[in-house]
Amino acid sequence: MLKNKIVLITGAGRGIGRAIAIALAKEGAEVVINYNGSEERAKEVKQTIEENGGKASIYKCNVSDFAACEAMIKDIVKEYGHLDILVNNAGITKDGLIMKMKEEDFDSVLNVNLKGTFNTIRHSARQMLKQRSGKIINISSVSGILGNVGQANYAASKAGVIGLTKTMARELGSRGITVNAIAPGFVDTEMTEVLSEEIRENACKQIILGRFGKPEDIANTAVFLASDKADYITGQVISVDGGMNV
Ligand code: NAP
């Protein structure tokens, strides 16, 4: 379904990004696995993809760094000649109630989650406009839609991603580029591993399906949005949350 497509997925060394990378590669895409912290994990994802007959490479870049994102996308275009799909998945949390939230914790979450998404779109758009095609998928969150106690920074960043998604859809649509967001609910990854049993139980009470999702649940939606089956969908936020945002 995605044969000959070149895909960049940010933060693809683990969790949801890893699942998206594996799923897109399974559909035939050639995947660039961006990472920032752990090269070992990125290599593991590359190896897993290759063992399944797919193609992948790894690229270290801190998405909050504007110039580094420019270099990453230039290198990808130089290497492959095109960039067809961009998945903005890299994200962090630094939770705390507003009265205790440090300025640097607000800034760093906004810098990775929102500015990082801006940075990669800003530098990919030129190539996609030239190609007159492209699919951009941004990973937002149910927190960006509903808000969440203790996540002023994270919810603001993910709400920002939604505004950015809709604006990019409007700006880029006339050149055949679609821009959509996925808003996951609670998904079992290292990000949610830190939650106490009490918080988990309370969260499950807000989920119609009564359980956390799996990274593959998000990856399945990303595969759909990346495919030509989603050619007439843009500017949308698709909730994959077991029924939290209804
Ligand atoms: P995770 O397991 O903590 O993974 C986060 C990923 O982001 C890692 O691969 C990490 O790469 C990467 N990353 C962090 N800072 C980066 C930076 N500055 N530059 C490049 N990469 C960076 O989290 P996850 O649960 O898979 O989350 C993936 C996305 O889904 C995030 O945007 C998150 O906000 C969103 N989301 C998650 C949930 C959930 O319940 N898990 C719910 C809603 C939305 P390194 O390890 O290489 O630094």
Architecture overview:
This protein has 246 residues and is of the alpha/beta class. It has a single domain, classed as NAD(P)-binding Rossmann-like Domain (Rossmann fold), CATH 3.40.50.720. Helix content is 49%, strand content 15%. Strands 3-2-1-4-5-6-7 form a seven-stranded parallel beta sheet, sandwiched between helices. α3 runs parallel beside α4 and α4 packs parallel to α6. The structure holds NADP nicotinamide-adenine-dinucleotide phosphate. NADP nicotinamide-adenine-dinucleotide phosphate binds next to α1, β2 and α7. GO terms for molecular function: 3-oxoacyl-[acyl-carrier-protein] reductase (NADPH) activity; NAD binding.
Tell me roughly what share of residues is in helical segments: 40-55%
Rg is 17 Å
The secondary-structure class comes to alpha/beta
Report the uncertain regions.
none
Indicate the mean pLDDT: 98
Net shape: globular
Tell me the span between the first and last alpha carbons. Answer: 31 Å
Percent strand equals 15-25%
Total beta strands:
7
CATH superfamily: NAD(P)-binding Rossmann-like Domain
Helix-strand pattern? EHEHEHEHEHHEHHHE
Present as ligands are: NADP nicotinamide-adenine-dinucleotide phosphate
The CATH topology turns out to be Rossmann fold
Instruction: Outline the biggest β-sheet.
Output: 7 strands, parallel
CATH top level assignment: Alpha Beta
DSSP helical segment count:
9
Spatial strand order of the main sheet: 3-2-1-4-5-6-7
CATH architecture: 3-Layer(aba) Sandwich
> What is the total domain count?
1
Function: Catalyzes the NADPH-dependent reduction of beta-ketoacyl-ACP substrates to beta-hydroxyacyl-ACP products, the first reductive step in the elongation cycle of fatty acid biosynthesis.
Pathway: Lipid metabolism; fatty acid biosynthesis
Protein name: 3-oxoacyl-[acyl-carrier-protein] reductase
Domain Ketoreductase: 5-185
